[in-house]
Backbone:
């Protein structure tokens, strides 16, 4: 039996309603019944009350649609079971006593719902209440008409909206009944599922193979009309729309180019929001390609089947009046709060802003300054290319084994950049240009970390080229890496080597410091720190997810940084 997060199997329908009402100040439970009503019942005096309901397990339907401008109340059954006659009758009495000018029942086309709501309607009429019932059958699955008729599925939510908007505007029961009946005739829905669902405490209602999907299944896990191999989202959507609008299908919806529709892309409960967005885009594209205007699109979970991983598409043919009713304000919590307007795949994109002013390059003169920069950079590049396999090997124990590739990519990019044009000799411009190269070409988090380091160091070197400035630049770069990367010295990362070298470079601030000695000390400190990472517990980066007993090697990032520093400072 699949796992469920319920308190008790028997109480799950009641508990779900209790939770909904607890979190929504606009709702009230009717004492002794599984009935949810608007908290401001006095506001319906003189207006038509609209009631609906059905089995639980379709959340947010039906209680999520109770509110001003939508349903006055709903009657819920147990999971996938019709509500009782007694509860429906009590709900009718409650709204009648609040002064409703008639009651409209909106019922999905299932035998149990028709019987129980129908029986309650007859008893309420015997008490003198003006009650009407509209049955919604919007399912386009079955190609041959059956005796039971079409099932009521997600299209019912649009019917709730139309009826509620009319009632809120003060329309009479006769007018609402007539317009709602007309709306039911221009709505069609179809479901597609990748998985079954299971009632709490029970096994799944059916099985689907790992590579199968089912077309046209109901919202209680009833069988559909066609099993097929899993299709890509765009093809699946095309298949659904073709089936829904195929004139040889007895339950089809007639769509002609130029028609206007409201589209509902409904999550059947267990599809990820990512997949739902993909399906929605495919549905809009497919409809637009057929010359259909999508006046409005609603995407989300509107009428579910517990945890079924699937989607249903609903189309309602609309004129201006129906669009106005769909747009009318409601306080129902499950109705999306959307900006009114059409859906289209052809939205104009906002043009990307022009790049900021280019950093002034210093005159890339020839001369020994440029030659020296090229020599140092070439030494760095060959060092990194030579140690590619060693870095990958070190990285396999802790990461994804690509540290060498990442550094080799950077080396290759720097080489190509130097061949294309002589590098700038001014320190700030040089580091800034190198930052651009590694950010664009290196990839991985190391690319961004080097980019941060070089950008901050360059900033610190603007207009300075004395030796202490390089020590300050090193500190600025490390500070930026720590601020965004989250690592600290001792966390077994590339920062360990950098930090050790920076400490040694602080001696450059002392008057009379011996430059060569300080640089040699910085290289030695960096190499010692890299070796010391062998015995550290990883506290940042991907290696922090690996048990420390498995990390017998030094950190590859720290080893790479030490090697780069040796190439630069020697």
Residues:
């Amino acid at each position: 039996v699949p796992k469920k997060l319920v308190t008790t199997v028997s109480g799950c329908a009641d508990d779900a309603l209790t939770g909904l009402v607890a979190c929504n100040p606009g709702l009230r439970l009717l004492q002794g019944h599984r009935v949810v009503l608007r908290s401001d019942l006095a506001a319906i005096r003189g207006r038509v009350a609209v009631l609906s309901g059905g089995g639980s397990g379709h959340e947010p339907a039906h209680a999520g649609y109770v509110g001003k401008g939508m349903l006055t109340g709903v009657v819920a059954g147990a999971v996938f079971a019709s509500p009782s006659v007694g509860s429906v009758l009590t709900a009718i009495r409650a709204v009648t006593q609040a002064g409703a000018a008639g009651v409209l029942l909106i019922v999905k086309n299932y035998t149990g719902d028709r019987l129980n709501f129908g029986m309650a309607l007859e008893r309420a009429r015997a008490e003198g209440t003006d009650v009407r019932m509209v049955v919604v059958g919007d399912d386009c699955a079955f190609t041959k008409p059956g005796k039971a008729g079409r099932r009521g599925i997600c299209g019912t939510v649009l019917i709730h909206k139309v009826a509620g908007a009319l009632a809120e505007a003060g329309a009479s029961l006769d007018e609402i009944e007539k317009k709602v009946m007309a709306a039911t005739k221009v709505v069609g829905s179809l479901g597609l599922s990748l998985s079954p669902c299971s009632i709490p405490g029970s096994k799944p209602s059916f099985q689907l193979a790992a590579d199968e999907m089912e077309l046209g299944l109901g919202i209680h896990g009833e069988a559909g009309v066609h099993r097929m191999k899993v299709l890509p989202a765009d093809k699946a959507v095309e298949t659904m729309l073709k089936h829904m609008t195929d004139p040889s299908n007895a339950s089809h919806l007639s769509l002609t180019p130029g028609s206007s529709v409201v589209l509902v892309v409904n999550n059947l409960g267990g599809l990820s929001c990512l997949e739902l967005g993909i399906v929605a885009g495919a549905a809009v594209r497919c409809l637009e390609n057929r010359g259909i205007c999508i006046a409005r699109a609603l995407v989300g979970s509107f009428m579910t089947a517990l945890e079924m991983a699937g989607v249903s598409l609903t189309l309602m043919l609309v004129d201006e009046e129906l669009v106005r009713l769909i747009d009318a304000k409601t306080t129902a919590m499950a109705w999306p709060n959307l900006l009114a307007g059409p859906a289209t795949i052809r939205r104009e994109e906002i043009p990307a802003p022009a790049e900021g002013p280019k950093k002034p390059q210093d005159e890339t003169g020839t001369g020994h300054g440029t030659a020296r920069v090229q020599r140092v950079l070439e030494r760095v590049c060959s060092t990194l290319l030579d140690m590619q396999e060693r870095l990958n090997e070190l990285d396999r124990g802790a990461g994804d084994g690509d540290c060498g590739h990442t550094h080799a990519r950077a080396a290759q990019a720097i080489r190509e950049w130097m061949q294309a044009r002589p590098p700038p000799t001014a320190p700030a411009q040089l580091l800034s240009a190198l930052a651009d190269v590694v950010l664009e070409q290196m990839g991985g988090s190391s690319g961004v970390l080097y980019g941060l380091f070089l950008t901050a160091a360059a900033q610190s070197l603007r207009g300075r080229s004395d030796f202490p400035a390089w020590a300050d630049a090193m500190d600025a770069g490390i500070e930026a890496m720590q601020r965004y990367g989250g690592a600290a010295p001792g966390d077994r990362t590339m920062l360990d080597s950098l930090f050790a070298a920076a400490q040694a470079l602080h001696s450059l601030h002392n008057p009379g410091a011996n430059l060569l000695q300080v640089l040699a000390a910085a290289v030695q400190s960096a190499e010692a720190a890299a070796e010391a990472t062998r015995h550290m517990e990883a506290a940042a980066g991907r290696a922090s997810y690996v048990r420390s007993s498995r990390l017998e090697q030094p950190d590859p990032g720290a080893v790479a940084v030490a090697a780069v520093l040796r190439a630069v400072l020697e």
Residues 159 and 405 are 59 Å apart (CA to CA). The first helix runs from residue 12 to 22.
